[in-house]
Amino acid sequence: MRWLLTKLRFIFCGLYYWMRGWPCLAGLLIVTGITVAAVAGTAYFVPEKLRDVALSIEGKASLVAKLLPATLPQPSKIEQAYWLPQNWSAQQRYWFHHTSQGTATIPVPYQWFMALERPELSVFYTSLTDDEYLRRLGFIPSPSSKGFTGNAPKYGYQDDTPKADAAQLGWVPNPTDNPNGLPVGFAILKAGVDPTTGEPYEDQIGLTCAACHTGHLEYKNVSIRFDGGPSMVNLGEVERVVGLSIGYTLLFPWRFEHFASKLEEIKGQSVDREKLKEGLKLALEKIKNQKAQTDGLLAAQGVVDLDEGFGRLDALNRIGNQVFYTNFLDQKTGKLPDPLLKGNFVRNDAPVSFPPIWDTPYFLWAQYDASVLSELVRNAGETLGVAAKINMTAAAPDRPLFGSSIHLSDVARFEELLRGTDPFSATNPGDKKFNGLIAPRWRDAQEKFRGDPAWAIDQKLVEKGRDLYRAHCFECHRGPVNDPEFDKKWPEDSFWKPENPDRTAKNEKNWVEIGGRHYFNVVQLPVTEIGTDRQQSRVLTERRVHLPESLGVKPVDDLNKAWGCGLLPDEADPLFVLALMDVVGKTIDQWNVANGTPDKIKQQMWGPRKNCQNQRAYVGARANINGKDKDVLSLEPRYRARPLDGVWATAPYLHNGSVPTLRDMLLPQRERPTSFCVGSRQFDPVNVGLVTKAHADEACAAGLTNFDVSLLGNSNRGHSFQGKEIDVTKLPPGVIGPELNEDERRSLVEYLKTL
After folding, report:
1. Same domain as 94, residue 42
2. Which pLDDT belongs to residue 503?
3. How many CB atoms lie within 10 A of CB 329?
4. Per DSSP, what are the bridge partners of residue 353?
5. In the prediction, which pLDDT does 48 show?
6. SS3 (DSSP) at 397
7. b vs e for 4-29, b when ≥16 Cβ sit within 10 Å of the residue's Cβ?
């Protein structure tokens, strides 16, 4: 062990001096260290396994450790895979997985990405895009588009996948280009012209919404996969892996030769190695400079990013940083046109689970905090957040402001595929149902594990659980989407009733009609009342951004003029949410101008909803400012509740993923697990959720994220059943019902499985 630590220190010193700017010495030291170790019988070092050693030697602030990827979980053994039926054909599903939104999320060209190696110091070529390696980052393997017809059992596509579902939407997806079989959520952005610089770019690789909203569970070496569910990817580590891979390629001569040779194989022609090396250096320098800048900004603020880990992302803050900081950087110098724009960059401090997106097109308000009304703005905003190219610096001939690489027509198609047809358009009122992407059903997964008692459903418990649901869950989550027995027993409380008696008294409806389309009026609760972690709610009610005059964006004026939003004047820098709504709206408008979109198609893509704020969260008030009473904007953060169909497949629970199982959700908040491991998709069908630790202080398996509920953004409080009070009007904040006994918990969990 002492010999190994000595060699590790030798290697780490080389890495340290490389980072300090001595690449030649670093290369010599590391090559020498590797050679000595090889003579001793070690074929190669895997830095991801050495990072913990580096931390123990140098301390947690070690500069060296930053040059080593975090340990990744070992890939689980998968013997069979199945996509659950959700009303999509195999071709529709594949199209959703791999059609580009117009993003360039990975900061290198597509062919480079295919030629890069994993950040391991191996003497042999180790592909970065190998299925098993990307699985360790949380991605779901997917077949090549070459010859794909919908039947690929290795990847879960079976002969029984429905073939004719596309007819109900009136269109059949175009063939999708994924020739190298990249995982679900990866898509090729074809070569084009950068809207900011006017320079041509090669094919790029970007992430689609499927990367974060496609779920899978593993049980007894079987992978159960489903669309629209929360993924378990670690996107923060993906960013580090790509940067380190480029760095290692430049540092070690044999790796560069591997890279160049692989690129020649991909291109089918020789490459200029000197030019290629310069291109890699420029790419790495850009990554390093931006990282150094953002680290400096956070250091000046006295904060650090929170660890998002597997299955979570601070998506809203990341979108804000991309749109209102990164997009303003000069692409050649990396400088900002206005020093005040530095204040637009904030840390990631509100990570949340990737929400399930089935049914979402019919929710009146989207996002956990019910902040977005327009579906096109929501989806186009997500596209900007995962690095669609956009000009937000200066207009020039053929390069207007807000010109972008977004594939808006496909973004609109995604929503259409998810939505299906309006359920209220059914001829027979009793036939109302969602017919776009539907929630995965327990019974379809259960079919893969016939005879396993852990997956069996106890109908007596289901019946009791149905009554408990009506007593304790209905108030917020409303009637279940697909339970005829519930509707028969409580017809006035059906999910599909336009009005419910308890809501009518509050002058509300279950369903709201806008422009001939029906939307489900999701219940909204003040954050103080539901009592769950408040970090995410702060992003869209507290964050503000500075906008340069040259951008010509005045959110309050623009949104009032275009949509009649009724926003009050605001003399400070605009709220981030309003600025984002305005910028995304202008980006959509510019795309329509550039593509000559007919008015009818514009209206179809926009849908009937306005690009306006939620007036329950953004309300008017009176305040005395400099001795004068004025109308001002008052903010009341809210979270919204969603229907619970498919809830069994969406662990971990609460919006920030702080509760590992459904059973734990029904415990008093003081009894919930204080730590658990995230990153594995091993499924517990009894408690319904993640497999948890036997003891809180038990270490997680190598590479998994330890979720500690004591950390900022990780609270598992709120939404609690505790105490003896049964009158919900008398319950304290954070408590939504009386304490349940174990039999009641089992019954309610059993019922939730059936939804």
Report:
1. no
2. 84
3. 20
4. 312
5. 52
6. coil
7. eeebbbbbbbbbbbbbeeeeeebbeb
Give the pLDDT score at 334. 83
Place of tokens 């990827």: 69
User: What is the C-alpha to C-alpha distance for residues 576 and 344, in angstroms, rounded to an integer?
Assistant: 9
**pLDDT, tens digit (0-9, with 9 covering 90-100), for 58-107:** 444 445 556 677 789 998 999 999 999 999 999 999 999 999 999 999 99
Question: In this structure, how many other beta carbons lie within 10 angstroms of the beta carbon of residue 729?
Answer: 5
Q: Could you read off the pLDDT of 452-462 as tens digits, one per residue?
A: 999 999 999 99
Residues of the chain with pLDDT under 50: 1-45, 58-62, 164-169
Residue 580 CA: distances (Å) to CA of 413, 436, 508: 22, 28, 29
Strands 675-678 and 705-708: what pairing? antiparallel
Cα–Cα distance between 306 and 748 in angstroms, integer? 34
Name residue 721's amino acid.
F
pLDDT for position 704: 93
- Are 665 and 705 in the same domain? yes
In terms of domains, do 42 and 152 share one? Answer: no
Structure tokens at 600: 């009818």
If you compute the radius of gyration of the chain from its CA atoms, what whole number of angstroms results? 26
Helix/strand/coil (H/E/C) assignment for every residue in 200-218 = EECCEEEECHHHCCEEEEE
Expressed as residue numbers, the domain containing 364 is 80-417
The DSSP bridge partners found for residue 588 are none
Instruction: Give pLDDT, residue 4.
Output: 41
Pairing type for strands 222-227 and 80-83 reads parallel
The answer to whether the CB of 69 falls within 8 A of the CB of 246 is no
Beta-sheet pairing, 735-737 with 720-721: parallel
By the 8 A CB rule, do 525 and 641 touch? yes
* Structural tokens at position 583: 């910028």
Distance CA 139, CA 214 (A): 9
- In a domain? residue 218: yes
Q: Where are the beta strands (DSSP E) in 114-246?
A: 186-189, 192-193, 200-201, 204-207, 214-219, 222-227
Q: Report d(CA 184, CA 214) in Å as an integer.
A: 8
- Asked if 521 and 507 count as a contact pair (C-beta separation under 8 A), the reply is no
DSSP 360: G
Residue 256 sits in the same domain as residue 389: yes
Provide the whole-model pTM.
0.90
CB 594, CB 403: distance < 8 Å: yes
3-state secondary structure of 536: helix
pLDDT at residue 378 in the model: 95
In angstroms, the CA 67 to CA 244 distance is: 7
Per-residue burial over 422-449, b = 16 or more CB atoms within 10 Å of its CB, e = otherwise: bbeeeeeeeebebbbbbbbbbeebbebb
Are both 179 and 258 inside the same structural domain?
yes
Q: Exposed/middle/buried for 263, CB within 10 Å: 0-12, 13-18, 19+?
A: buried
Regarding whether 84 and 61 lie in a shared domain, the answer is no
CA distances from 352 to 364, 449, 650, 695, 720 (A): 21, 31, 13, 25, 19
Q: With both helix axes pointing from N to C terminus, report the angle between 90-98 and 408-419 in degrees, rounded to the nearest 10.
A: 140
CA dist., res. 593 & res. 461, Å (int): 58
Phi, psi of 644 (to 5 degrees): -105, 20
H helices of 302-331, in order, are 315-324
Q: Which secondary structure element, helix H or strand E, spans residue 8, and what is its range?
A: helix 2-19
The total of structural domains in the chain comes to 3
Report the DSSP beta bridge partners of residue 589.
none
Closest to 276 (Cα-Cα) out of 111, 103, 129: 111
The answer as to whether 381 is a domain residue is: yes
